[in-house]
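Chain A, query sequence.
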Amino acid sequence: MKQILSLIIIVFLILPLVSQEPTGREIMEKVILKTGWQDMEAEITMTITLRGRQRIRKIKMYSRKRTETESDMVMKFLYPPDVKGTGFLLIEHDQGEDERYLYLPALRRIRRIAASGQGGAFMGSDFSYYDIGKPKLNDWQYKNLGLVKLKGRQCYQIEALPATPQIEKDTGYSRIIHWIDPEKWSALQAEYYDRRGKLWKVLEIKEIQKINEVWFQTHLLMKNVSSGGQSEMKFEKIEINKGLSPQIFTQRYLSR
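Chain A, predicted structure.
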């Protein structure tokens, strides 16, 4: 009888420890809904490499949190001359479809990118339109696969599956595996699988900087396993909480 009671006590002592393990969604909420900043301004150098040939893009980026779960972002291309003046606007919505707009100066028109087009290559890079900006939390169902080591750091490995068949169709992703640093609550790496379940792209976070007590990814490298190409984004001159004007995050500003 004493042995049974001891076993029951041990079980009840262990259960709280087991329940403390965060779920996949709880972990991704900490990553995606990061607090401590309201707006951000930065300069980006994007380097696209394919078959030994490099193309460089210079970009000015503005971002702001409109609500706790919704953000806006504008990217204006500064270099080279053939893409100078091109603009991209992302308006996130917690409920419903996000809005993506592309301004093409040669045509002097703004084109809305449909949900079905968000899996397309962003300005010829290995990043898709969906990759630009933070992931939409409710687009995915998350599972915590446990703690693993990556580059000497303990990380949560999170599996993300499309919440609906339409999400898979629109993004082109059937599965994403994230490696999350629990100290910085930032991804260190991600693997993207195509609709056939084959590894398509690998994202490596090369650098994470702490700016005003907030961790930001400042050097990203997306490797395209299928094509052998890669695209790199480096963020510089980052400033946060500047009180950016809401007028920046409009179609009118995009075409200026």
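The chain is about 15% helix and 45% strand. The longest strand covers residues 53-65.
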